[in-house]
Amino acid sequence: MITRKIIIAGISSGEQDLITQKALNLAKDADLIFVPRAKNNIIGIAENLFLKIMPDKKLTPLFFPMISNEQQRDEIIYAQLKNLSHEILNAQKIFFPMIGDATLYSTGKYLIDALKKISPEVEIEFVPGISAHSIAAACAKRFLAMADEILSIVPATANPAKIKRVLENSDVIAIYKPSALKNLRDLIQSTGTFRQIITVQKAGTPDEKIFYDVDALNNLSEYMSVILLWR
Questions:
Q1: Nearest Cα residue to 53 out of 91, 106, 22, 14
Q2: If residue 212 lies in a helix (H) or strand (E), which one and from where to where?
Q3: What is the pLDDT of residues 103-149, one digit of tens each?
Q4: φ and ψ at 175, to 5 degrees?
Q5: Which listed residue, 15, 56, 84, 170, has the most CB atoms within 10 A of its CB?
Q6: How far is Cα 65 from Cα 79, in angstroms, rounded to an integer?
Q7: How far apart are CA 177 and CA 155, in angstroms?
Q8: Gyration radius of the chain over CA positions
Q9: Rounded distance, CA 89 to CA 135, Å?
Q10: Distance (Å, rounded) from C-alpha 38 to C-alpha 63?
Q11: Which residue(s) pair with 19 in the sheet?
Q12: Any residues with CB less than 8 A from the CB of 134 and at least 6 apart, and which?
């Protein structure tokens, strides 16, 4: 019986210099490499990067639809894996790179849930990357939280009432996916004054843009953004 392992590897913002040597070594030894695709099923950051650094390795794209219907999303992912069951069952090491960190808001969780329906005994290994809020802060040249400051990480897909409570009770806040909440600007402004607000779009990529204070709140339409707020 084959001992099967899947490695979920964070590759930070997709910059080659930020990928750990461990992730690269595991990718080289992998029998099967899945790469994520999202909106419009076009080549993503992880796939584009591995096409450059490992041109001789076969990459198998998987479409992860950006939809709110979880059941439909899971069915789409599972259907793709079912069609690849022969390759999966003949692989000892499966590698899955994803931007950001492997354990935070991880696409890898959806993959593992579907994969276990085909290979229930599969083992899981994580290779940490750098989370989006850390990359954003580094790009903006700012420290995130110091001493006894409370740092909160908030997805804009969460309930607005919960987001408001976090904004009111944290010293530093990182908001992911700001375009998911249409009235986010008004919600932020309703919770009082912040000494600084920075929005970083596509942090660590050639398309990176950074906006400060008023401009930060006027540029919330990019999905791949992080808003950083300091009380």
A1: 14
A2: strand 209-212
A3: 999 999 999 999 999 999 999 999 999 999 999 999 999 999 999 99
A4: -110, 120
A5: 170
A6: 13
A7: 6
A8: 19
A9: 36
A10: 6
A11: none
A12: 144
* Pair of tokens at residue 205: 């990529």
Q: Which helix (H) or strand (E) holds 135?
A: helix 132-139
**Whole-prediction pTM value?**
0.90
Residue type, 19: I
C-alpha 184/C-alpha 187 separation (Å) is 5
Within 44-157, strands assigned E span 59-63, 93-98, 123-127, 151-155
Side chain identity at residue 114, one-letter code: A
Q: Phi/psi class of residue 157: alpha, beta or left (left: φ > 0; alpha: ψ in -120 to 50)?
A: alpha
Average pLDDT, the chain: 94
Four-residue CA torsion sign, 128, 134, 138, 144: negative
Contact between 112 and 6 (Cβ < 8 Å): yes
Average pLDDT value for residue range 26-47: 92
194-212 residue pLDDT tens: 999 999 999 988 889 999 9
* C-alpha separations of 49 from 14, 55, 59, 122 in Å: 7, 10, 11, 26
**Rounded-to-integer distance, Cα 134 and Cα 138, Å:** 6
